[in-house]
Design a protein that fits this description.
The protein is mainly alpha-helical. It has a domain at 1-51. It is built from ten helices and no strands. The longest helix is centred in the middle third of the chain and has 35 residues, at 105-139.
Length: 196
């Protein structure tokens, strides 16, 4: 009984399992592999979520942004339209201008202030979001430069020395008879066989 006890103590003493520890050298630990795979999956999802973190503007914001783009084209086309109307129907144009002349000056200032403050605040908020996106893009520049340098190093390494193994180009030094015949350098086989 003492010999068997010593053999078991050699392999399983102090909570050790020599057989399991030896098997782990030759086979991947399934629990460790599962935890590494879960960590990789979690990190992949985190990076994917970062791409979509920017909140999408609501309907009102999109409507106002579209409205923000209208004043300049409307003013340009409206002014061109006034020139056309002034040439086509001068009396109609003159009567409309008389109506605009009646609008009091403070009312023009009030309308200008409302338009400037409302659209100006929207423009400032849009500009600040744009500057934030530029800062985020600039923070990625060092990584892009590093990747470009790595690609250039790969390109330089690929063109420096001869390629080996499966990567080496296959060079067939034998002439292509079909191509030479097509180009007219070699008489065709049919003509060679029919001549005596």
């Amino acid at each position: 009984m003492g010999l068997i006890e010593r053999v078991f103590a050699l392999f399983f003493d102090d909570g050790r399992n020599v057989i399991r520890e030896t098997a782990e050298v030759f086979r991947e630990n399934a629990e460790g592999a599962a935890s590494r795979e879960a960590e990789l999956h979690r990190e992949t999802l985190r990076q994917f979520a970062e791409e979509f973190q920017r909140p999408r503007p609501g309907r009102f914001d999109r409507f106002i942004n579209g409205l923000n783009r209208l004043p300049r084209p409307l003013l340009a086309f409206g002014t061109i339209g006034l020139f056309v109307v002034a040439m086509v129907d001068p009396l109609w144009f003159a009567s409309r201008m008389q109506g605009i002349a009646v609008v009091p000056e403070p009312l023009w200032w009030l309308m200008g202030a409302i338009v400037i403050f409302y659209f100006g605040a929207r423009h400032q908020a849009h500009s600040q979001r744009f500057q934030t996106s530029i800062a985020q893009s600039l923070s990625q520049v060092p990584g892009v430069i590093d990747n470009a340098a790595r690609l250039e190093a790969l390109r330089a390494g690929a063109s420096d020395g001869p390629q080996q193994g499966d990567m080496a180009p296959v060079i067939d030094a034998a002439p292509n008879l079909a191509l030479a015949e097509w180009q007219g350098r070699v008489p065709s086989r049919a003509a060679a066989t029919t001549e005596p």
